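Schema walk-through. Below, the input block comes first and the output block second. Nothing else is stored per chain. Lengths vary across the set, and this one has 145 residues.
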Amino acid sequence: MASAVPAGYAAPHVGGLQTFAAEDDRRRLTAAAVKAVVRLVNAWGGNNAEGAALLGVSTSTWDRMKAGRWDGVLSQDQLTRASALIGVFKGLHLLFADDMADRWPRLANRGPVFDRMSPIEAMIAGGIPRMLETRHYIDALRGGL
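--- output ---
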């Protein structure tokens, strides 16, 4: 997938926020992000199709990532997805002190963000916006915004 950012362009961090626009940043962060997402999808009991959909990659790419045989660089969107998912994972483990942290993403949820779907289903259906909403929802449940 071609990047919309011109080659050699080093985007400034907007207001101190990481934008994942600069390829050097994406290259530096990709390996850790992939490893973390593979682990959290496994912890949540996710299958290959769910892992691929959550990260925004094909199932064949997801298979290579899981096997440690993928040497690509995540796109800005894919790193945003990874960041949101990692934030959800971390927030759940701060909110719940037991195995509920890893069961919660699979449970049907009546929260306003989920429309009676499981958080995993909602995040797959809603993409990045729903992933960010889920992260904010978890943070609000923890009492922080």
